[in-house]
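INFO  loader      accepted 1 record
INFO  loader      residues=140
INFO  predictor   begin
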Amino acid sequence: MKRLFSVMLALVLVFTVAGCGAKSKIANTKIDIGESEIFSEEDRNAAVKWILERWSKEKTITKLYSITYAGDEESKYEQDYYSDWEGYSHEEVIVFYIDFHTARGAGSEGFEGDEDYEEWAQMLGRDDGGEWVFVTGGYG
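INFO  predictor   done
INFO  writer      dumping tokens
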């Protein structure tokens, strides 16, 4: 029942953040918030919402295929890694993998144009249980 609720909430998030032009980019995005002993379901859904909002506006992509929680182990590893950076201030880091397709002209934005990307890490950080913010993204 809990899993069904998570899926339903994820679908509501997809339709909530889908704007007219961006809707087709994220309309059929598969979302898997997974299980976590670190982050609540609400925490993970808030991170997914942030990712959907950001990537629905991204002009370099034409389709967001999936968003998948990378797991507690990966999120903890990245938290430990980034805590060693000078000037880094986030208390928590959460990692999701995203699969997407780029626009033909995306090469000028750092992506190969008209290509699929799989398991592109999207790392978000926050302090004191606040709002998620962008930390970094890419292949690690």
